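Entry type: protein chain
Record version: 2
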Amino acid sequence: MSFKGPKFGIEGVRSELGVKDRPILNNMIKPDVPEFMEAIDKANEEKGEKTLYAVNVTADLPEVLKNAERAIELGANCLLVNYLATGFPVLRTLAEDESIKVPIMSHMNVAGAYYVSPISGVRSTLILGKLPRPAGADIVVHPAPYGKAPMMEEKYVEVAKLHRYPFYDLKPCFPMPSGGIAPIIVKELVNTLGKDFVVAAGGGIHLHPG
C-alpha cells in the first residue's frame, strides 16, 4: 500500500503522553502558541503528565506546510487540520512529511456536506472512519450520538472500529467522539468503545461548576 497512514497512531500518542490504560482527555481552547506552551510546561511539572496542544494549521497546499513549520518552531507538539475542508491530500502531505514529527489530529468540519443527504454523497463511515486513517490521521474527531451531533449509534461505532481494526500494515488511530460530550456520558463511551479513544470535552469542562 502506498499510503503510510498514521506516524504515531494509538500507541505512539500514548507513548508521547505517558498514558497507557485509559482514554485520553481533550479540551478545546484557543490561546496563542508561545504563551500556552509555557503554561503547558508548568502544568506538566506539577501534574507529572504531558499535554499535547493541537495547533490548527488548516490551509491549502503549500501554505499548510508553512503553518505547520511555524507552529512547531513556536513549540507546538501536535497539529490539527480540518481535513474535509482542505481535502485528503493536505492531511496526507502533512502526515508523510518527514520533517513533521508530531501527532496530527483531523477535524470533521464540512463532513455534513458529504454524507447528510439521503440521496447523494458519500457514506459517513468512509468519510469519518476508513479514509482519514490511511491519509495519516493519528486522532480523528467524529460525531457521537449522545449529544448535539446527528449520528446513528451503529454508524458511530463502525467509525471507531474502522480507526482501530487491522488494516494492512497501517497503525490504528484514536477515535475522538465529539459533540455535546459531558462527564455523565463518559461511562457510556467506555462501555461502547473500550479504552482506546479520546474524550472530546469542550463545554463539558468549560461549563462544569468544578
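Comment: The longest helix spans residues 33-47.
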